[in-house]
Amino acid sequence: MRKPAPVSALLPAMLRALAPGARGVGVGAGAGTEAAGGAGPLYRRAKRALLQVIEQGACAPGTALPSETALAGTLGVSIGTLRRAVDELVADHILVRQQGRGTFVATHDAERFLFQFFHVERADGHREAPQVELLAFERQRLDGDAAEALEALRLREGEHVFVIQNRLSLQGRPVVFDRIVLPAPMFRGLTEKKLRERPGTIYQLYQSEFAITVLRAAERARAVPADRATARVLGVVPGAAVMQVRRTALTFGDRPVEYRVSTVNTARHDYVRMLSRPA
After folding, report:
1. Does 182 have pLDDT greater than 90?
2. Cα 11 from Cα 171, distance rounded (Å)
3. Burial of 169 (0-12, 13-18, 19+ CB in 10 A)
4. Would you tell me which of 60, 160, 186, 260 could form a disulfide with 247, CB atoms 3.0–4.6 Å apart?
């Protein structure tokens, strides 16, 4: 973890966030919806200011926040108000508290991916990180046949994207077939070599190489028959019932950064989500 960011380095971004007429950059209910000049609870203004410095990179992933006293003084709020703002950012997985060490800007690691973004586990409740096999990587233009990806990523037909196909295995069995679409301009310099040789999860790669932090995802699931490509990857017969999960991964300001279609063989595994308050 990095050393705490000095308040002096964060002050300009905080002041911009709190200036009259400033627009919020928050995620979640209520965040970034009040004018900073006075409307709305103080803790939401404090939350918006902290989000501003994190989104702009003044407080990078892994960096410790300054002390509560210093932050509260800079923002002109009480310690209690600051803690409420921080509590919401912790619940949003933007900050993380470490007992005895302080509060840090959250980073993506295998544990976070497993418990926030990977929801497949064995029917008996056993959960583990999947083994990921890259099957295909290419750069292409999206056409009209990819209407869902165009809409999810807010792209126009003909724009360049990276298309990635992965097979995810658990206990040595193929369980998930991922098809991932990324806007090429946001991931400039992405190569098959970087994907294959990344030391951590794909979301760690987004964060470390492209300064893109996935905060949350919107998902829709339905049962579908396996097509031939899916049947071949997962080792099932064509037409077998599988679960298809369409995910749009979002960063700050609810900006979409990834569209993913995950097809899951649920013969031995379940798709499990823990419900909590809205992000």
Report:
1. yes
2. 49
3. middle
4. 260
Q: What is the pLDDT of residue 74?
A: 85
Question: Which domains are assigned to the chain?
Answer: 7-105 (1.10.10.10), 110-271 (3.40.1410.10)
Say which residue, 163 or 9, is predicted with more confidence: 163
Amino acid at 55: E
Average pLDDT, integer, range 157-177? 96
Integer Cα distance of 105 and 94 in angstroms = 6
- Please report the DSSP string for the chain in residue order: -BPPPPHHHHHHHHHHHHSTTPPP---STTTT-S-TTS-S-HHHHHHHHHHHHHHTTSS-TTBBPPPHHHHHHHHT--HHHHHHHHHHHHHTTSEEEETTTEEEE----HHHIIIII--EEETTS---PPEEEEEEEEEEE--GGGHHHHHHHT--TT-EEEEEEEEEEETTEEEEEEEEEEEGGGGTT--HHHHHH-SS-HHHHHHHHH-----EEEEEEEEEE--HHHHHHHT--TT-EEEEEEEEEEEGGGEEEEEEEEEE--SSEEE-----S--
Plot region of 35 (φ>0 → left; ψ -120 to 50 → alpha; else → beta): beta
Sheet holding 241-251, edge to edge: 131-141, 160-170, 173-183, 255-264, 241-251, 216-225
